[in-house]
Amino acid sequence: MQVGSAPQAPVQEGLDKPPETEKKIEDDEFKRVYYPKFVYSWGLNNYGQLGRPKNIKPTLLPKTVPIEDAEILAVSVTQIVTTPGNTFILTDLGVVYGNGVNNIRQLAGGEFLSHKFYKLDNLEDHVVKELSVFWDTCYAVTKTGVALGWGANAYGQLGRDPAVMFSARAPVEMYGSPENPVVQVAGGQRHCVILTKKGRVLTCGDFKNRQLGRTHELYDYVPREVETLRNVKQIAAGQHHNLALVRTRNEMKVYAWGWNKDGQCGDNPATTGEHAPVPFEVQFSVTIEKGAILKCGWRHSGLKLVTGELFLWGDNKLGQQGQEERIPNEPFPKRIKNLSSDEEVKDFGLGLGHTVVILKSGMVVAWGDNVDGCCGIGHQNSPVIMPLKICCGIRRISTKVFAGYKQSFAVTI
């Protein structure tokens, strides 16, 4: 050994992986053994969206999803989003998996129909932080702060002229850069909403229901700012309406715009009209603090406070509001009072016509449209008006819940 040289580590035979790779394998194995988690799914499965072979009969009780076939660790699942024909899973490594139908190339180069989850080859060069999907258009936010889109573009919702690009297999860069990063994207049926780190909101796509938040005719395929919104921290999009959580000096406020036929924007359509072309403040009876979570179903909306209280408003024809009153819609935010005071809402998801929540105890509760088994209670009697405090067939503690179209998913320990 030369003087002053560092001692050499002994060579270990069979050591053909770099230390960081071995560490990653060890961490994954530790999670698999000591933190066993499962993904359950239930509801409509006509295209295999639930991760099981397609069946015209819905899945009425939650069943485990064999995600291990795609080498996905349930503990790594950060987001599950669904459309009428697809389900997409995002992991904490920024990898996206998908299944279902591939008619508009929303699954990129995959099979035309598959119930098995597989990596989307069109995103192999990207690390994804967040997903949003609606119908057959998909969106993603990358680690570098770029909003991507692929799938259908009939209304310019991908930020491209539909006369030139009707659909896209490869993701197109819609907006954002490392200098002006995008932090969230929310897709409606025919439009897209983009949120930047600076708190600005941009929209593009169909304008028929005034969902762009600015004056324009028919559609606009160029993402442009909604001038009246500033300091936005969170966005959500329904079928044709949008919500924004805005930071003010002392509290957070919710703003809404777009289609308001069922009160999904948080105001009475009988007095203000069915459309709200400009964002307006939604009135709440409580103070909204930092940490609130905003979500949209197709035609109903929800806000969870840091206290665990859940407010819902909008369409109620299928009982998705969880209220005793059988009214067709609830245009003003109303707190769900049918949950006991010690059972705070930990997480929630809004689908086409159903609502799913996780209580503080880890129990899954569901109500609303149940024609296709969305509530996971073993039958198809619908609607389910009151929140059913049962385990939805899941006998494990749930940590995350996701709802979309007519499917529901839960991650459990």
TrEMBL record:
PROSITE patterns, alphabetized:
RCC1_3
Chain residue ranges for the region called Disordered: 1-23
- Which residue ranges have biased composition labelled Basic and acidic residues? 14-23
**Gene3D superfamilies given for it?**
Regulator of chromosome condensation 1/beta-lactamase-inhibitor protein II
Highest taxon of the lineage: Eukaryota
Q: Does the keyword Signal apply?
A: no
Q: Which InterPro entries does the protein's record reference?
A: Ran_GTPase-activating, RCC1-like_dom, RCC1/BLIP-II, Reg_chr_condens
Keywords recorded for this protein, A-Z:
Guanine-nucleotide releasing factor, Repeat
List, for all copies, the residue spans of the domain called RCC1-like. Answer: 39-410
Pfam families, alphabetically? WD40_RLD (PF25390)
Could you tell me which PANTHER family the record lists for this protein? Answer: REGULATOR OF CHROMOSOME CONDENSATION
Q: What is this protein called?
A: RCC1-like domain-containing protein
